[in-house]
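Colleagues,

Please find the record for the two-part complex below.
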Amino acid sequence: MNAVLGQLGQIFLVVALAPLITGWVRLVKSRLNGRIGASPLQPYRDIYRLLQKEAIVAHSASWVFRAAPYVTFAAVWLAACIIPTYTTNMFLAPAADLIALVALLGVARFWTALAGMDVGTAFGGLGASREMMIASLAEPAMLMVSFSLSLISGTTSPTQIIVFILDGGVGIEVSMGLALVALIMVAVAENGRIPIDNPATHLELTMVHEAMVLEYSGRHLALMEGAGMVRLTLFMALIGGIFAPWGIGVPGTGAAGALVGLGAFLAKCFVLATALAFFETAIAKMRVFRYADFLGGALLLGLLATIFLYVSEAV
Amino acid sequence: MLIAAALSALLALAVLGVLAGGEMWRHRVVYFCCALASLALLIGGLKHLGQTPGTGPAIVLPIGLPWMAAHFRLDNLSALFMVIVNLGTAAASVYGIGYCSHLPEPRRVTPFFPLFLFGMNAVLIADDAFMFLVSWEFMSLASWLLVLADHKNPENRSAAMVYLMMAAFGTFCLLTCFGLLAGPEGAYSFPAMRGGVLEPMTGFLVVLLAVLGAGSKAGLVPLHAWLPLAHPAAPSHVSALMSGVMTKVALYGLIRILFDLHGHVAWGWGAALMVIGGITAVMGVLYAILQDDLKKLLAYSTVENIGVVVIGLGLALAFKDSGEKTLAALALVAGLYHMLNHAIFKTLLFLSAGAVITATGERDLGKLGGLLKRMPWTGAATLVGAAAISALPPLNGFVSEWLIFQSLFKGPGLPHWTMKFGVPVVGAMLALAAALAATCFVRAYGIAFLGRPRSAAAAAAHRLPASMRWTMAMLAVLCIVLGAIPVTVTDALSGVVQPLTGVHFAVSADLGWPWLSPVSSTRGSYSGTVLVMTGLSLFVISILLVHGFGTTKVRRADAWDCGHAEDIPETQYTGQSFAQPLRRVFCSSLFAARETVDMPEPGDQSPARLTVRVIDPIWTYLYLGILRVVDAIADRVNRMQFLTVRRYLLMMFATLVFMLLVVAARQQK
């Protein structure tokens, strides 16, 4: 099993699996709410349905509006190609590290926010403004998590961090715990989940992500929604890979290792998606200006994770 | 030879600029010749960089002070900055060919423009303190005259006044700094200074004065106050040079003194510079987010980027003093790379601001909107510039910030506890600044170029001369190229930092050409080249997939807007409303940002008003404070102007006695 094949499998897997994970979260949430809920395959059908519809573009929109869905999707997809899911044997692994990952997600956000402002409606500007406010705290928090992970493992490459942890290079560390909590908080914000944003909400004054993509329809909307699903998968792969790397295929284990890795990845996604559904059901959405407290907390935890490394060293 | 010829040509062009008078074609010729001279200097710099590392021959001219000739020399560091500077000046000159006819009074700009170019280039090749300071002043005064070009505006006059004061302060600091470096024997040539040994106290003062002197020119917080006033006041192609290029010349001075002439700066200064850089970056970008004036916003964003560079320089100093030469080289390469990048994208953005002002006559974000449709070329180039300055991959801004982050991540390996704890904090500041910069430019670009026009002027934006459009397009291409082939750039830069850090260092040693791997291949790597290719493939695949599975039909319709669609552009978000969440989150304590709503009484027909009040803490508390103290002292001293002759004689006598006592006391020792 060579690196190119491993990479191609990864590229295909993240896109193929993403709607299923979103569908599963929705199903569990429905059951918890006492509804029967749609099949977890429903997102595939939704995307197919959207692709068949014609795209409606406002008169006032420029080419940025039409290019943004493709750029956003490609950027998120590219970011997801770098985070190992079922194997660490990937051709593209050295092309980008955690810092580049944060920046690639930044590219997607930059274009989505611009698209939100392009039509020239109040809702679009509202969504863009709030999204950038959230990002201006979530992004540093994520970089601080990368900082502490890089200090623990000596590398910023996600593949190498996973290899380092698999080799037993790290025991139970306070810093790892703090980094995990910070990363989960960032993941919640980046994916627009409760308590930051409600993905099920629509036409509410509290919406953030939905407000930016309000004008989208047809295939453009399908791409924007697809990008959101791939982003959720990406964060699950990141959290599952770094904090529970067991089972992932490593170079030299061949096809069998990859198959075991695939099974392990599916199991991790299943657990994380179920946990996400429980978490979202149990908690209420925050007021817009409380976001800063939540994300500032994440940033502080990230910083503490780095500083605790020295404290534990010195004591 | 080429360089000397180009510099003399620039001086001659200044005279031609005076003679140009009211004939527009003569102004165009001057700008065209400036562009040629800049290109010649650019080629001269590149040629030197392409050679084996080493310094060029020293040129001694019998001008200047009678007992001291003028020394010039081109070494690798000067050559690199010559490339950075002349990339910007070439672009601004070509832009000027078309732009000069749109200026209110081109006669007040054209003669000083070549002088400004000359001053900046002469600073780079000066090889003694005297020529350095003369050229430095040349640069300051020429740009001061350019700031005054539109002198009928009282705001510009006061901006020029503040600029002049700060420039004088900066030169004073540098003068004292060189005086200390030269020592009592007065060894004013740079080779003599390099050989000198400094006392610890003198060494400390040298660094302090260098940071104050060069920092005030570069715009380090809290010495940045003049920058957002003076840069926007000048015509846009000059603003581009002041922001994009002149700040780099200032940092050249800093690097020259700290890394070359002084040579042994203590790590504590590295830590201090790093923290100053972090504060500068965060403050600069927060100021920028609050601005509604397009050019002011860009000027504040320059402050931010200078902060980012200074973080890199500070780290390099700390690494160098601790013996980590490879890491010092990495941090210095990162800083230099960011300077190169910032010179390109800030020049681009200022030129596009000039294009917007030319096309609409407006520089207030609240009056713009929808310009991408009216000005597709400018809009597209600005989008690239905005993405690059927001540090988005695969453009050049990301590569240099990535390198700075990589060197920061190695910072905790230093033996000092200050650095161990300080580096993560500065890392958080840098991350915050990077994220806020993206917000700032989403806001600026989204409000100015996207949406619907907010004023009649914006709706009627007109076409621009080809020279202006082509300049911006070329700079945008440079942003992409420098991001896509990072390793080629870092290899060139490692030749520059080799004499400064004393180690040969290749950022891509481990993996080879397209892979940037600062420490080793397993310690984190990046490849702009591979990322661009993969990203493009995925982009094409997404298009093919979507169009293959679905329909390609598009229908144009009115905006939906949740069913509230209306035709009033005022309902769009404005710069103020976009900044509101950030103002509340980040600025409520630091800038004392407050919002008050005046609701009219029931029955009253007048509109409700929302007033936003923001205080600039540094201006209010530091500068106005200094001003009050100076005023108070001046009031006291004023009385001494009205004394009788008898009292004046008494004072002179007392002074004389005091001086004699001092002399006597010193003789006793």
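The longest strand of chain B covers residues 594-598.

Comments are welcome before we finalize the supplementary table.
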